[in-house]
Design goal:
Elements lengths: L1 H21 E8 L6 E8 L4 E5 L3 E9 L6 E12 L8 H10 L7 E13 L4 E12 L2 E13 L5 E10 L9 E2 L4 E17 L4
Antiparallel strand pairs: 1-4, 1-11, 2-3, 2-11, 4-5, 5-6, 6-7, 7-8, 8-9, 9-11, 10-11
Amino acid sequence: MKNEFRKIVLLLIYLTGVSTILFAQANYKIAESKEIEMKLSGTSTLHDWVMNTNTVSGEAKFDFMEGSNSQLTSLESLSFSLIVQNLKSDSKGLDKNAYKALKTNKYKNIFYLLTTAIISPISENKYLLKTEGELTVAGVTKKIYMDVNCLINANGTITCNGKYKLNMTDYHVKPPSFMFGAMKTGDAITLDFNMVYIKQPKI
């Protein structure tokens, strides 16, 4: 019995050592970059509309094969957040009504939090992530499934991009209208994002 217990303990020590050797975790934060863009787009009775911002915050924890800067093995966590009133279109009227519909007087941010991710390599430094997470809009949180493309850049940064289609009414948001109702937006909108995560120094 003692020998069996000793074998189990040795096996656990070995496996712990192997995981330490094989994998290295690194913390990342969204960098300030002109490449960063978060965009909401949709339709209306007059024309299509787009609201975008280059100001997004967030962080992530990526696992790499030990000794490699490009061989991604897992994604421990990922999040991003944006202030709704940083989203701007080419129409101040649309912006004003969108902010009102999204209840920015009470809920200032759109927030995403990853729960799980399955990683599939596409090439040496490109990966497809099948993700499950929680998207919070106007104070309402929904589980969503989203494909995210990740590119490990030569300078060590990681670019993540993707898109997700949703209905505003699912988040208890009434599609905004303006010009005395002459222009009414559609319920369906698309969230597009392109974000650059930069590795943080170890503390």
